[in-house]
């Protein structure tokens, strides 16, 4: 088995378990929740097949939904994040993405934080719009998106830095 596939399978399982066992039980002030499972989508290999990536992202979101009893909102948000990832990579990394030479362990921290921030805000906004599904609650949607995004971004960047090699 290819070592990249093995690493991604382990990452999938660990992030899924961390999400459903630890993070789903964190709820600060009733609206701040971390969703670290999206780290898998951020770190998935760039050169791999796009359809496989979208299907695996859907599967990850669906598994979180099954454990959270949330009816598909995580699957939808995960697929939207996976679908928008090429734009996020190009925006955050520019020419490195154009030439498919991005190694997250060697990238500038500012580019990595931009990438994680944009992706997290997109994911969380879609997640909370679908979860609340009422335009009259737009302020609640924005509040949950903002505060959960901040918490998720901090945890995600910290986790990526702690578990990556060769960080600048």
Automatic annotation (TrEMBL):
Keyword Phosphoprotein present in the record's keywords: the answer is no
This one is known as: Rod shape-determining protein MreD
- Which domain of life, per UniProt? Bacteria
Please give the start and end residues of each transmembrane region. Answer: 5-22, 28-44, 51-68, 74-97, 109-133, 145-163
Taxonomic lineage from the root: Bacteria, Pseudomonadati, Bacteroidota, Flavobacteriia, Flavobacteriales
Organism encoding this protein: Winogradskyella echinorum
Alphabetized, the UniProt keywords read:
Membrane, Transmembrane, Transmembrane helix
């Amino acid at each position: 088995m290819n070592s990249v596939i093995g690493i991604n399978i382990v990452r999938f399982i660990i992030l899924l378990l961390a999400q459903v066992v630890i993070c789903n039980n964190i709820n600060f002030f009733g609206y701040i929740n971390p969703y670290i499972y999206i780290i898998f989508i951020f770190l998935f290999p760039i050169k791999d097949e796009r359809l496989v990536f979208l299907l695996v992202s859907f599967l990850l979101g669906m598994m979180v939904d099954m454990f959270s009893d949330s009816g598909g909102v995580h699957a939808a948000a995960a697929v939207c994040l996976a679908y928008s990832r090429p734009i996020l990579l190009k925006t955050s990394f520019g020419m490195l993405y154009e030439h498919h030479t991005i190694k997250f362990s060697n990238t500038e921290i500012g580019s990595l934080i931009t990438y994680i921030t944009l992706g997290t805000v997109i994911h969380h906004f879609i997640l909370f719009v679908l979860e609340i599904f009422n335009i009259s609650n737009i302020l609640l949607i924005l509040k949950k998106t903002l505060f959960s995004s901040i918490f998720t971004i901090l945890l995600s960047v910290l986790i990526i830095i702690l578990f990556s090699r060769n960080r600048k």
